[in-house]
Specification:
By secondary structure, the chain is mostly helical. The protein has 3 helices and no strands. Helix content is about 80%, strand content about 0%.
């Protein structure tokens, strides 16, 4: 009986670890393919703030966003 409970607990821990790392890898891949913010969004945001961004400023913002991902 104790053996069965121990096997069950170990199986649950291994399954949780595999699920966590699998989901983490999937989300990293998904976010790399579909980033949450893109150049058009940055351009629209800067224009709403009253600035006309040039491509250099947009590239700087994109690099800053990638740094923190």
């Amino acid at each position: 009986m104790l053996h069965d409970i121990l096997v069950l607990v170990i199986g649950l821990l291994i399954g949780a670890a595999i699920g966590f790392f699998g989901a983490r890898a999937f989300m990293k891949k998904y976010l790399k393919k579909n980033p949450p913010i893109n150049e058009e969004m940055i351009k629209a945001l800067m224009m709403q703030m009253g600035r006309k961004p040039n491509q250099k400023q947009i590239n700087q913002m994109m690099k800053a966003m990638e740094k923190y991902q």
